[in-house]
Amino acid sequence: MQAVHFGAGNIGRGFIGKLLYDAGYQTCFIDVNQDMIDRLNEEKKYRVIYAEEEGRVFEVGNVSGIHSLTEPEKVVDAIVNADIITTAVGTNILPVIAKIIARGLDKRYQQHDRPVNIIACENAIGGTTLLKQALLEETAAENHDRLLSLTGFPNAAVDRIVPNQQQENPLDVMVEPFFEWVTEEPKIIAEKPAIDGMNYVTNLEAYIERKLFTVNTGHAVTAYLGYMESKQTIKEALEDRQIYEKVMAVLQETGKLICRKYHFHENDHQEYIAKIISRFTNPFIVDEVTRVARTPIKKLGYNERFISPARQLLEQDIFPKALVYGIFAVLHYNYENDPEAVSLQAKLQADGIKKTLSEVSGLTIDSPIVTAVEKLFQETR
Ligand SMILES: NC(=O)c1ccc[n+]([C@@H]2O[C@H](COP(=O)([O-])OP(=O)(O)OC[C@H]3O[C@@H](n4cnc5c(N)ncnc54)[C@H](O)[C@@H]3O)[C@@H](O)[C@H]2O)c1
Ligand SMILES: O=P(O)(O)OC[C@@H](O)[C@@H](O)[C@H](O)[C@H](O)CO
């Protein structure tokens, strides 16, 4: 069985690639990192190392690589023959790879009518749906029906902390032992891919919101508050009592929303939070605050980890005080090596807090969230 996976990065190699290998797939990674592609083709295998006391090591074999931009014909042919297509490139890159995937699917369905599932393994609500929309834009209108009748577009939630790597062999990747991959069953086409460790659910929204608003909201608040306090890593940030308490306050707010909306049991959710904090403070992982804080403009999006739970709480007449503080912290993120942080700071300088926040978040300028964030700035001046 052939898998085509876009993004040979941390999650691509450390999570999806491993599960695909264990399930018997030969995985062709598509990336723009030439060194990574060359190494994959030379070595045809790499190692996944667990960040734990025993330090278990797993070999992932049957891998190869193709450059997304310089070898487009090879990418197209890999898509023609794929049994599954997955991505882990970052949500912002999905419209970029849509072009080549659309070409590949077009050629595929000219040659045969074997259905294929595409699963975007990104941190986003409706990641595969975003890719599907971008694919339709890249496909001639007369081929839309054929594309939609032969392609499955299930959304997914993926959870495994894979920090930036410092391995001797750049192909090797250290990951936390915990993982969760949940895929939307009703949108699967034809036979369900049998991948050990990937679970199918009918109500993905509950799982993705629980994951995004707990793991990722908690992670992001830790990172932005940590950055403000000059902490280097997520673990170091959480060792600061004041940061820890602010993070817990945020998780109690998002927890209230998740438990009410999806009827998760309160005690189970508190255990879920405790487990996540223990994952963040895993002593075998060095996870820099700047990795977790990356792309702050994206993270302030309307359907993202801060604004979505904050506005949903507000709709229930609950004022999201702790989340507002988190948003205030995001606006302080001025890391010069993150292009989005640089643009965000430039925009804040030019347009001020209310206009900037309103534009990046999609909230109205008179939203109580925007007003409360501005008030925090005034109070700390
Ligand atoms: N690292 C984690 O802990 C984690 C966990 C769950 C989900 N995710 C999600 O997985 C996705 C990837 O994150 P990551 O941490 O692996 O990032 P990463 O930067 O390590 O990997 C992304 C890869 O995509 C490649 N890429 C960029 N543009 C490309 C293009 N046009 N064509 C093909 N490849 C391209 C990059 O070269 C890189 O190798 C993100 O959506 C992230 O939110 C990450
Ligand atoms: O990947 P991002 O930028 O959406 O979020 C940063 C981290 O919170 C994220 O990568 C987590 O490590 C991951 O989502 C854990 O499953």
UniProtKB/TrEMBL annotation:
Coiled coil: none annotated. NAD(+) binds at residues 3-14. Gene3D superfamilies: N-(1-d-carboxylethyl)-l-norvaline Dehydrogenase, domain 2, NAD(P)-binding Rossmann-like Domain. It catalyses: D-mannitol 1-phosphate + NAD(+) = beta-D-fructose 6-phosphate + NADH + H(+). NCBIfam families: PRK02318.1-2, PRK02318.1-3, PRK02318.2-1, PRK02318.2-5. Belongs to the mannitol dehydrogenase family. This is Mannitol-1-phosphate 5-dehydrogenase. The gene is mtlD.
